[in-house]
């Protein structure tokens, strides 16, 4: 009995080892770059789209997308677009699984934040030449889908962040005009603090890539950058970047911001209750969130929207986000997919989508439409030209997390900005831009 | 992987909780009559489990072990065999990585703190529910077990709220004159909070197992001891604890494996922060996978697997019926 069990165990182990060995001997990197990525099909002609297009859309945008699809079908009767809505938190992992299994949709819409991890899979085609023109789009949202000098996505919509603050509280504190520089922003916050606002400025204190993104914007305002010009090397601890982190952390250390909150979804309650009075580099969607929480018109009567303050040398910068269309390399109907994308990026459709869902056009020309004029919109429009794209390299998720952790060390652990960014730079260099290993 | 390990432990551990005093009943193998047919039937019944086990556990484990010896990253997923074999490089790299070392240390600390605390609490509750509390006994038993069956995500949301700076816990503390504690914002307190949640969530399991063990202790022994004038603490020390030894062993191992794999509590409550104070090994593995560092992630999970394996081997040794 014992004898038998031992033998069987040995056999099992042997089988497992052989299987592993077979798997391993089958390995061997033929070339350093994935073969099929970055390829681009033939140019897309002007004929109507035909065939079935499986479309995966991220987040809530898919709710109203059928309206646009129906519109597209009017001029392209031979096309059948099947929409699948995928929740945002599952999108990247579901897509990664689909790419692994080779069961991809023909077209996807992905948020800017998810694009670096999606594109890191090497599972997408580049945009066919001549489909759209780079000059027609805002630079940051266009640049968000560029990896290794190649364009993988066509922007659908975009937004840029602003400084937004409680008009009434500012008036009580004797503030008559929005702060335009870093120094003025501090004075502004001190005045609000004196007026009894516990944490005047809301910062991104999640200590992950979102915090890193906010610091990156301040670095840009200070003339700094996280990557060198050709995106081959991290440049986290340059003097401009250190100075930017010093400024960011000083807002917490001077008692003008809390190191503990608000969490992203707590921003509206903190701002509404007067616990905070201003959002640094805040997204335009907050306008409607304020109205949802406090009643229609609250945002217009209580919040002032202004451009982000500039750095010491007058540098501008604003977080830019939104999303782009991308076509997986294993897509079975690339032609129709790209035709739909081209149609969606034309001015009338860009404006129509704003009217339907409130997402702002990524196409510059669409902003000429009267529908895109207004208090908030004008500020967003002005900020879009200073938009800062996230460093869209395959290791950004990891490096962004490291930066976030180091930022936490500065505000909570008493580490200097220089030491924190030296440490971040060292780790980032070990990880690389494309991911070594 | 963790659930399977736990399940295996539960099933293998169960026989040890047979009534004390009864002779160990080793199933005598009947002489060869019909045994071949029986074996075939047994295998047939095992097929559904084996298929599921192979597809969702065995094969992925083998692939993970294989991938840990390569330089696989997210960009390789479309062509997973197109990677270089790098031997132990992933292992040497992550063992030298301060974040991984921190996660390892955190995990060890979780085990060292949470296992005894859960067991003590579970044992105390079991004692109370076995003897002291007569009224509403069923109610209390159920109440103590509720954390075990509560959806961990829902529980974490409530914990997050309760332990936020202006949350109910701090308000309660303020009433007795204790200053607000930044539970989730300060490394030591965040670690403490995760430990508390881990204990809260696992004490119920300990309680149920101890209760089963306690109820198997024959009442007559206590009566005899009482007649001999043994005090309450003396009876606990000289009768209950020795007779509960197998249960204690089982619970220790169950809890050790469970806390080695600790993931949900830090993931949901603190995301491993602040300052990596609550990042466990399982969470580290998860993060690396998210970053696309597949080989590093696999190497980390293999190390975790080895740790769990060692604990399980010890368990099999200790729980093996003596003959």
Care to describe what's here?
The complex is a heterodimer of chains A (437) and B (323). Chain A has 437 residues and is an alpha/beta fold. Chain A has two domains: 51-160 and 320-388, 3-Layer(aba) Sandwich (D-Maltodextrin-Binding Protein, domain 2); 162-319 and 392-431, Periplasmic binding protein-like II (D-Maltodextrin-Binding Protein, domain 2, 3-Layer(aba) Sandwich), CATH 3.40.190. Chain A has 17 helices and twelve strands. Chain A has helices at 2-25, 65-75, 88-101, 112-119, 139-143, 167-172, 182-194, 209-221, 239-253, 267-273, 286-294, 298-302, 334-344, 347-357, 375-384, 396-412, 417-431, and strands at residues 51-58, 79-86, 107-111, 146-147, 150-151, 154-160, 162-166, 201-202, 278-282, 303-306, 318-326, 387-388. In chain A, strands 1, 2, 3, 6, 11 and 12 form a six-stranded mixed beta sheet that branches. In chain A, strands 8-9-7-10 form a four-stranded mixed beta sheet. In chain A, strands 4-5 form a two-stranded antiparallel ribbon. In chain A, helix 3 (88-101) packs parallel to helix 4 and helix 8 crosses helix 9 (239-253). The longest helix of chain A has 24 residues, at 2-25. Residues 1-6 and 31-37 of chain A have low confidence and may be disordered. Chain B has one domain (2-14, 39-319): MetI-like (MetI-like fold, Orthogonal Bundle). Chain B has 14 helices and no strands. In chain B, helix 4 (98-132) runs antiparallel to helix 11, helix 4 (98-132) packs across helix 13 and helix 8 runs antiparallel to helix 11.
């Amino acid at each position: 009995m014992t004898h038998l069990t031992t033998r069987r165990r040995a056999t099992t182990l042997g089988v497992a080892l052989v299987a592993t060995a077979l798997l391993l001997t089958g390995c061997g990197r033929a070339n350093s770059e994935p073969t099929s990525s970055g390829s681009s099909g033939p140019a897309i002609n002007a004929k109507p789209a035909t065939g079935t297009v499986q479309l995966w859309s991220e987040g809530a945008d898919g709710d109203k997308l059928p309206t646009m699809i129906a519109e597209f079908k009017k001029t392209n009767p031979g096309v059948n677009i099947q929409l699948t809505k995928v929740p945002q938190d599952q999108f990247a992992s579901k897509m990664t699984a689909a790419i692994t299994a080779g069961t991809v949709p023909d077209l996807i819409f992905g948020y800017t934040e998810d694009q670096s991890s999606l594109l890191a899979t090497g599972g997408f085609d580049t945009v066919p030449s001549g489909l759209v023109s780079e000059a027609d789009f805002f630079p940051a949202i266009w640049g968000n889908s560029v990896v290794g000098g190649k364009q993988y996505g066509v922007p659908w919509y975009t937004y840029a962040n602003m400084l937004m603050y409680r008009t009434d509280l500012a008036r009580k504190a004797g503030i008559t005009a929005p702060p335009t520089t870093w120094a003025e922003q501090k004075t502004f916050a001190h005045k609000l603090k004196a007026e009894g606002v516990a944490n005047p400025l809301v910062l991104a204190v999640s200590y992950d890539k979102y915090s890193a993104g906010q610091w990156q914007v301040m670095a840009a305002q200070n003339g700094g950058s996280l990557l060198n010009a050709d995106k081959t090397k991290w440049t986290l601890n340059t003097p401009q970047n250190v100075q930017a982190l010093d400024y960011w952390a000083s807002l917490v250390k001077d008692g003008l911001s809390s190191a503990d909150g608000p969490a992203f979804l707590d921003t509206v309650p903190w701002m509404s209750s007067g616990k905070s009075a201003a959002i640094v580099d805040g997204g335009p969607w907050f306008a409607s969130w304020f109205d949802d929480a406090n009643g229609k018109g609250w945002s217009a009567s209580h919040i002032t929207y202004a451009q982000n303050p500039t750095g010491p040398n007058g540098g501008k910068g604003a977080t830019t986000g939104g999303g782009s269309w991308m076509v997986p390399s294993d897509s079975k109907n690339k032609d129709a997919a790209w035709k739909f994308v081209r149609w969606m990026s034309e001015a009338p459709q860009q404006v129509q989508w704003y009217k339907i869902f409130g997402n702002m056009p990524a196409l510059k020309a669409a902003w000429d439409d009267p529908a895109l004029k207004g208090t908030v919109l004008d500020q967003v429009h002005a900020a879009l030209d200073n938009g800062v794209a996230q460093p869209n390299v395959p290791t950004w998720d990891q490096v962004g997390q490291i930066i976030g952790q180091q930022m936490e060390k500065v505000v909570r652990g008493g580490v200097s900005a220089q030491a924190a960014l030296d440490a971040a730079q060292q780790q980032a260099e070990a990880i690389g831009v494309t991911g070594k290993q | 992987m963790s659930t399977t390990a736990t399940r295996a432990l539960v099933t293998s551990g169960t026989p040890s909780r047979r009534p004390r005093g009864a002779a160990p009943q080793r199933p005598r193998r009947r002489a060869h009559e019909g045994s071949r047919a029986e074996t075939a039937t047994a295998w047939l019944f095992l097929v559904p489990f084996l298929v599921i086990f192979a597809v969702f556990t065995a094969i992925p484990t083998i692939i993970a072990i294989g991938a840990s010896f390569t330089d696989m990253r997210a960009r390789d997923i479309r062509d997973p065999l197109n990677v270089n074999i790098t031997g132990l490089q992933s292992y040497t790299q992550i063992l030298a990585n301060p974040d991984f070392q921190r996660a390892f240390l955190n995990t060890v600390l979780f085990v060292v703190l949470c296992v005894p605390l859960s067991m003590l609490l579970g044992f105390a509750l079991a004692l109370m529910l076995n003897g002291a509390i007569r009224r509403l006994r069923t109610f209390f038993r159920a109440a103590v077990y509720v954390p075990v069956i509560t959806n961990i995500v829902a529980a974490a949301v409530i914990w997050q709220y309760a332990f936020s700076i202006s949350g109910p816990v701090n308000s309660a503390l303020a009433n007795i004159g204790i200053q607000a504690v930044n539970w989730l914002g300060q490394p030591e307190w965040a670690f403490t909070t995760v430990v508390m949640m881990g204990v809260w969530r696992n004490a119920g399991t300990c309680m149920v197992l101890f209760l089963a063990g306690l109820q198997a202790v024959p009442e007559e022994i206590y009566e005899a001891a009482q007649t001999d004038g043994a005090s309450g603490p003396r009876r606990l020390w000289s009768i209950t604890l020795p007779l509960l030894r197998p249960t204690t062993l089982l619970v220790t191992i169950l809890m050790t494996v469970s806390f080695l794999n600790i993931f949900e509590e830090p993931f949901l409550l603190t995301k491993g922060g602040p300052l990596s104070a609550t990042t466990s090994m399982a969470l580290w593995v998860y993060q690396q996978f998210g970053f696309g560092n597949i080989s590093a992630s696999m190497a980390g999970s293999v190390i975790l697997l080895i740790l769990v394996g060692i604990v399980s081997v010890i368990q099999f040794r200790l729980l093996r019926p003596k003959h």
